[in-house]
């Protein structure tokens, strides 16, 4: 019987009609998977950072100082860091469907239960458990996308996934402001309690839906035709064949590769920027002269909009040029400049929003670019474990940054010294990636 499998050349350099089939195939994959994963990630970020709005009232009710609040924010990353690698390796073993279901159910239950906190120790415990529950979600999805998309499509598809963070900020700000403004003491519950309950419950429902909706690999996708499955699988197989022969395939080998730690340093810039953007934006806007909670929520969405637009443009440019180093370094530089300006110029809310928008550009664009690099030369167990290690190490900065900012704010009454430290670390991370990632390993010259 003749072999009906399409060769890679037939897939990647087809006549016009076949090219249309390839594009239609990836549109179908994107519509099916990315729509659902996008919604999951919106819920994930909404439940992770809604504490930045809750703290406007929560600190008073639980008796938390700024330093204590910063500690609670940081404790999220303890379990998150420790369980990133095991959770990502588990996804490779049991599949995305079971992994995403487990993660979403646990984080949804914990986030909803935060509505019933009455003491600081409960806040600390809840944040620690929430981080443990969410561990592996981000690197797991990055690994999962590498099962479906070849390298040439990865920055753009990652940027679309990251749009969910922007959507969480755009939706979450006004929504959280609305809840805080209108649910004070409804049925005897404080507004921040309603915030955790109403924004946590959808994750539980979506976790159940993930069990029935997600497909682990293209080979299992009954919703694709035979030809469409061959197109997706063929592109990925060709990408694996074109990886260097010395590409790490075992986790221990990957752990000895210095590029893993270079990429981890680059990834660390993202959660460090996120410390400012996700946990202190409402406070910064309030200090810039805005007192209405709903207005704070609406204004806090603006930096996310700017960051999302910049990310799409930068990711498209990076994919078209197959260039990662310059795109990453310039993105992190924008964030460093925005953070420095925030300490000098942000005395009016309009200037504060402009500075936060530069931080947002770094936050989104750097994340879209950095995660195109590991799958370009890691494979097999090394890809799963290496991505988990990079994500875990990168979050170490996210553990310390909220503590530093909260402590500095408590001691000095200002964020300036802490934000300047953030600016320096973000700039250094960009330089490390620029000089530490070999040009020939940035992206495979393949892809449908």
Automatic annotation (TrEMBL):
The chain crosses the membrane at residues 29-46, 66-83, 104-123, 129-149, 161-180, 192-214, 260-281, 293-314, 326-345, 351-371, 383-405, 417-437. It holds the Pfam family MFS_1. One of its GO terms (molecular function) is transmembrane transporter activity. This is Tartrate transporter. Its main location: membrane. It comes from the Bacteria. It is found in: Membrane. GO terms for cellular component: membrane. CDD domains: MFS_ExuT_GudP_like. InterPro entries: MFS (IPR011701), MFS_dom (IPR020846), MFS_trans_sf (IPR036259). Keywords: Membrane, Transmembrane, Transmembrane helix, Transport. It is a multi-pass membrane protein. Residues 33-441 form the Major facilitator superfamily (MFS) profile domain.
């Amino acid at each position: 019987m003749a072999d009906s499998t399409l060769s890679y050349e037939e897939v990647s350099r087809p006549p016009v009609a076949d090219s249309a089939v390839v594009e239609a195939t990836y549109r179908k994959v994107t519509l099916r998977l990315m729509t659902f994963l996008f919604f999951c990630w919106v819920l994930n970020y909404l439940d992770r950072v809604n504490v930045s709005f809750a703290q406007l009232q929560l600190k008073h009710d639980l008796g938390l100082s700024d330093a204590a609040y910063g500690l609670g924010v940081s404790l999220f990353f303890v379990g998150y860091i420790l369980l990133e690698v095991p959770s990502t390796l588990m996804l490779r073993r049991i599949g995305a469907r079971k992994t995403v279901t487990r993660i979403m159910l646990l984080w949804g239950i914990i986030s909803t239960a935060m509505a019933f906190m009455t003491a600081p120790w409960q806040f600390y415990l809840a944040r620690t458990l929430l981080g443990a529950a969410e561990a592996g979600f981000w690197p797991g999805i990055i690994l999962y996308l590498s099962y479906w998309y070849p390298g040439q499509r990865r920055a753009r598809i990652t940027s679309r996934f990251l749009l969910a963070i922007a959507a969480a900020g755009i939706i979450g700000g006004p929504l959280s402001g609305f809840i805080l403004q209108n649910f004070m003491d409804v049925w005897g519950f404080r507004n921040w309690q309603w915030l955790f309950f109403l924004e946590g419950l959808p994750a539980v429902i979506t976790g159940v839906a993930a069990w029935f909706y997600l497909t682990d690999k293209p080979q299992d996708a009954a919703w694709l035709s035979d030809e469409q499955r061959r197109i997706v699988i063929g592109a990925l197989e060709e990408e694996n064949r074109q990886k260097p022969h010395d590409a790490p395939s075992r986790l221990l080998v990957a752990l000895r590769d210095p590029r893993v730690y270079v990429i981890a340093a680059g990834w660390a810039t993202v959660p460090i920027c996120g410390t400012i953007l996700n946990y202190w934006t409402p406070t910064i806007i309030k200090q810039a002269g805005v007192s209405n909670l709903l207005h704070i929520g609406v204004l806090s969405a603006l930096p996310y909009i700017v960051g999302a637009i910049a990310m799409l443009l930068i990711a498209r440019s990076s994919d078209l040029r197959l260039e990662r180093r310059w795109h990453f370094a310039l993105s992190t530089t924008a964030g460093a400049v925005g953070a420095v300006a925030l300490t000098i110029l942000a005395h009016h809310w309009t200037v504060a929003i402009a500075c936060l928008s530069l931080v947002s550009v770094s936050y989104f664009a750097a994340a879209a670019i950095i995660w195109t690099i590991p799958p370009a030369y890691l494979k097999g167990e090394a890809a799963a474990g290496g991505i988990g290690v990079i994500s875990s190490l990168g979050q170490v900065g996210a553990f310390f940054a909220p503590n530093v900012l909260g402590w500095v704010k408590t001691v000095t009454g200002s964020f300036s010294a802490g934000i300047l430290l953030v600016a320096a670390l973000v700039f250094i991370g960009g330089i490390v990636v620029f000089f530490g990632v070999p040009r020939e390993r940035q992206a495979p010259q393949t892809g449908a």
